[in-house]
Amino acid sequence: MNNESTVIIACGGTGGHLTPGIALAQELGRRGQKLTLAISHKKIDEQVLAAYPDFKFLKIPGGPLSKNPWQFLKSFGAQVRGFLFAIKFIRRQRPCVVVGFGGFGIAALVLAAWWLNQKVVLHESNRQVGRAVRWLARFADRVFLPTKVFLPGIKAGVLRTLGFPLRDELCWVPKEAARNALGLPKEGKLLLIFGGSQGAHALSDWGRQHMELLAEAGVHMVCITGLREPAQTLRRHTPDGRPIEFHFMPFCNHMAELLSAADLTVARSGAGSLAELARVGLPSILIPFPHAADDHQMANALYYERAGAASVLPQKRIKELWGVVQSLLFDEAALVQMKAALKGLDTENAQAIFADELCALIEGDF
C-alpha cells in the first residue's frame, strides 16, 4: 500500500458504522498508513472518537433520505453539499482508496471518489444488505459482505466475504477485573441492558420497571440509556438485606470491561453489538429494533439464534422478557452452551484480512 497517500475511511452515523472503521484504522495505522476518518455531525461520533485522539477525522455533510417531502429536500440538500465538499477534499488528498462502512453518510464521499476515478471499497456488516450499500455497490471496486450474504447484480470479482472488524481493545477481560475496573459489585449476577451505542427507550424502560423484581432475585443491572439521559445509580435490597445496584449510563467507552462483567445481556441486534458479544462470549436475549431498515436486526438476531448463540424475543412480546431472563440467567448449562456457540461466530482477525485485501487492490495483486 502507498503510505504516501491517504486512506479515507467513511464510517460515521452509528456505532455499528464507526467502530469497524476505527478497527480498520488501527490495523492500517500499525502498517504506517496515513488515514482520515470521515464522520457525521452526530454527537455519538464525537463521543466515540474522544477515546482516539491520535486519529485525524473530518466531519462531512449528509444524512439519510426521508419519504417526508420536507425532510427529503433537507437531506438531499445536505447530500449535495457533502458531494461538493467531498470533491474538493478528494482532489486535494488524492487518496489511494475510499472505504465506506454503510449508511447514507458515506454516499457523498463514495460518489465523489468514483467520479474522480479513485478506488472505492464498501463493507456491509448486517445480514440484510442496507439500502446505501445496495445502491452504491455499482460504483465499488470491492464489496465486503458477511458469510452467506449475497448481493445480486454485482459484477464478478467485486464481492468478498468478511466478518466484522473489532477494535483492538475489544477483548475478553476476567470478570473480577472487569467489575473492579467499572466499580461494579464483585458478587452476584449482573444483567446488562444494551440498546446499542445510542440506547433504546423500550429496553431502558423495561429495566426501570423491573428493578424491584431484579432486586428480589438478587440481580444487579447496568443499563446503557443513550446520551439523552444522565448517569444515575439506584440501590435496592434483596429480601435478606443484601444491597443490589442499578447503574444507568448514557454511554460507555469501556465496552470490553462492561460486556465481560455481565452474566447476560438484553440487547438490540446491530451487527456491531453482536460481534462484540461473540468476542467476549456474553450470552444474550436479543430484542431487534422493530423499525430497523429492511428489518436487518431481526435477520442478524435469527442468525445468532439458529447458531445457538442467543435467544430472540420480538419487541411486541417484551412483556414475556422477565420470564426469559429468569429462566436463562440462572441456567448455567444453557449459558455455557451459548458461550461455546458464540466462539464459533467470533470474527477474529477481520481487520487484518481487510487490510490485506486493501493492499492487494491498491497494488493490483488481485
In short:
The chain has 366 residues and is α/β, with parallel strands linked by helices. Helices cover 41% and strands 17% of the residues. The strands form two sheets. It has a seven-stranded parallel β-sheet with strand order 3-2-1-4-5-6-7, sandwiched between helices.
Task: Tell me what you see in this structure.
- The protein is α/β, with parallel strands linked by helices and 366 residues long.
- The protein folds into two domains: 6-166 and 348-363, 3-Layer(aba) Sandwich (Rossmann fold), CATH 3.40.50.2000; 175-343, Glycogen Phosphorylase B (Rossmann fold).
- It has 14 helices and 14 strands.
- The protein has helices at 15-30, 43-49, 69-93, 107-115, 131-136, 175-182, 201-209, 211-216, 255-261, 271-280, 296-306, 321-329, 332-343, 350-363; strands spanning 6-10, 34-39, 57-59, 97-100, 120-123, 142-145, 159-161, 189-194, 219-224, 232-237, 243-249, 264-267, 284-286, 311-312.
- The strands form two sheets. It has a seven-stranded parallel beta sheet, with helices on both faces. Strands 10-11-9-8-12-13-14 form a seven-stranded mixed beta sheet, with helices on both faces.
- Helix 1 packs across helix 14 (350-363), helix 3 packs across helix 4 (107-115) and helix 6 crosses helix 9.
- The model has no long low-confidence stretch (mean pLDDT 91).
